[in-house]
Design goal:
CATH topology: Four Helix Bundle (Hemerythrin (Met), subunit A)
Shape: elongated
Number of helices: 7
Distance between the termini: 70 Å
Radius of gyration: 20 Å
Structural class: mainly alpha
Order of helices and strands: HHHHHHEEH
CATH architecture: Up-down Bundle
């Protein structure tokens, strides 16, 4: 009875002081959390939808020898999902550096638009070139993408970590880790657009 009472008092103390999984003052706002989750869910849905029902010929079609196929795009999306998350986790493990927030020059919304903008071309790093991702079939890549995206959604639902005050220098400028999280979702959308471009090519197989 005494142990039970002590346990209840300890739980009450944890709840009151904010250590029982509640959102603390250092975490992102409710609106920011909602925006990030919506982006993660929507971009996942659109990526999966873009390849639904495609034949092998359609999955493997390339508009030119140096262009990616639909299959290549999915391999890249799935591989990049893990690589970007590793970058996110490594920066969150490091010390907070709020003094660098003044280096951030872009809003969340403009940053997402920038990543999704297909008119701005960039070479994918070697580890996430489609041929280097380790995937040998579409099903494995999609399953991996599904599992990792689910983990990332779960993180944003429950995390109380201080994403805003972990600031990262990227090749294109400074962003915080909340924006780096948004980048993961925006990146998959960027290549879903690429898939749709492949499908719109005049030479794309009818079936």
């Amino acid at each position: 009875m005494i142990k039970r009472t002590i346990g209840r008092l300890l739980l009450l103390s944890l709840v009151i002081t904010g250590f029982a999984g509640t959102i603390n003052d250092n975490s992102v706002s409710k609106a920011e959390r909602k925006y990030a989750l919506g982006l993660m869910k929507e971009t996942y849905k659109e990526a999966v939808k873009s390849v639904k029902g495609l034949s092998e010929a359609q999955l493997n079609y390339k508009a030119a020898a140096d262009k990616w196929s639909v299959r290549d795009c999915i391999y890249h999306i799935a591989g990049a999902e893990k690589l970007l998350w590793t970058l996110f986790e490594n920066n969150m493990k490091g010390p907070a550096n709020p003094e660098k927030r003044t280096e951030i020059k872009v809003t969340d919304e403009d940053f997402v638009k920038m990543i999704q903008n297909r008119s701005m071309k960039a070479q994918a790093p070697e580890p996430i070139q489609p041929k280097n991702t380790g995937y040998t079939n579409l099903e494995a890549a999609l399953a991996d993408f599904k599992n990792t995206r689910a983990e990332h959604i779960k993180y944003m639902k429950f995390s109380t970590e201080d994403m805003r005050n972990h600031v990262v220098q990227m090749p294109f400028g400074w962003i915080d880790c909340y924006q780096l999280y948004l980048m993961i979702a925006a990146h998959s959308n960027r290549h879903t657009q690429q898939i749709n471009e492949v499908k719109a090519d005049p030479g794309f197989p009818a079936n």
